[in-house]
């Protein structure tokens, strides 16, 4: 069972629908028992960083960190991925969950913002979310801020927007993050979600 965190931020239901489509048992909840009893956790979201942190709440945020520290697979998507980092400058300075070292900043001047649409990701075969995928695949992005990774323990996969390398996926042990939207990325996105389900079953 995968628990999708319900904190009223953006695309939550579409993630559940995608999991339903691949036959993955899931529940939408922010109850502590549902989080503790889950085989894995997905933190979705489409919102400004500070709003996402406020909506998540300190209690739920601490519980997510506790469960991840026990080795439970946790995957953040879009703003749910960005809040895994230390901080963001979006709408002022905001602290994140600090589960992965790095900061979230606005995409550089001169680029069309938001970065929206399909873009090619350079697949890192060491990240199990990409098992069975080719070296370069296209996924759907929609964001104005991007994470700058400073964590030496983390693995990464990149995309290029203009002349800027953008972190598309990160893994730190059992913690995963996706800047792109797997639930909007057709067959390949479903493959990524299926791979996460497999990770949760190990």
Automatic annotation (TrEMBL):
GO molecular function: glutaminase activity; imidazoleglycerol-phosphate synthase activity; lyase activity
Active site (catalytic residues): 78 (nucleophile), 181, 183
Domain Glutamine amidotransferase: from-to ranges: 4-196
Pathway: Amino-acid biosynthesis; L-histidine biosynthesis; L-histidine from 5-phospho-alpha-D-ribose 1-diphosphate: step 5/9
One Pfam assignment: GATase
Localization (cell): Cytoplasm
Gene3D superfamilies: 3.40.50.880
Keywords of the record: Amino-acid biosynthesis, Cytoplasm, Glutamine amidotransferase, Glycosyltransferase, Histidine biosynthesis, Hydrolase, Lyase, Transferase
E.C. numbers: 4.3.2.10, 3.5.1.2
Reaction equations catalysed: 5-[(5-phospho-1-deoxy-D-ribulos-1-ylimino)methylamino]-1-(5-phospho-beta-D-ribosyl)imidazole-4-carboxamide + L-glutamine = D-erythro-1-(imidazol-4-yl)glycerol 3-phosphate + 5-amino-1-(5-phospho-beta-D-ribosyl)imidazole-4-carboxamide + L-glutamate + H(+); L-glutamine + H2O = L-glutamate + NH4(+)
GO biological process, one term: L-histidine biosynthetic process
Any single Gene Ontology cellular-component annotation: cytoplasm
Subunit structure: Heterodimer of HisH and HisF.
Biological role: IGPS catalyzes the conversion of PRFAR and glutamine to IGP, AICAR and glutamate. The HisH subunit catalyzes the hydrolysis of glutamine to glutamate and ammonia as part of the synthesis of IGP and AICAR. The resulting ammonia molecule is channeled to the active site of HisF.
Protein name: Imidazole glycerol phosphate synthase subunit HisH
UniProt source species: Sedimentisphaera salicampi
Lineage of source species: Bacteria, Pseudomonadati, Planctomycetota, Phycisphaerae, Sedimentisphaerales
Gene: hisH1
């Amino acid at each position: 069972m995968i628990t999708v965190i319900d904190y009223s931020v953006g695309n939550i239901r579409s993630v559940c629908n995608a999991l339903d489509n691949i036959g993955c048992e899931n529940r939408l909840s922010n109850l502590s028992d549902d989080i503790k009893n889950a085989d894995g956790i997905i933190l979705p979201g489409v919102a400004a960083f500070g709003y996402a942190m406020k909506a998540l709440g300190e209690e739920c945020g601490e519980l997510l960190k506790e469960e991840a520290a026990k080795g439970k697979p946790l995957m953040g998507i879009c703003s749910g991925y960005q809040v895994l980092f230390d901080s963001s400058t979006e709408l002022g300075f905001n602290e994140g969950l600090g589960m992965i070292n790095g900061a979230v900043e606005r995409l550089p001047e001169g680029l069309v913002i938001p970065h929206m649409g399909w873009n090619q990701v350079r697949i890192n075969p060491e990240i199990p979310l990409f098992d069975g995928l080719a070296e370069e695949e296209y996924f759907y992005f929609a964001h104005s801020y991007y994470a700058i990774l400073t964590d030496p323990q983390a693995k990464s996969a990149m995309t290029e927007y203009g002349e800027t390398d953008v972190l598309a996926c990160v893994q730190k042990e059992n913690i995963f993050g996706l800047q792109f939207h797997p639930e909007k990325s057709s067959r390949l996105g479903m493959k990524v979600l299926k791979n996460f389900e497999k990770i949760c079953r190990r």
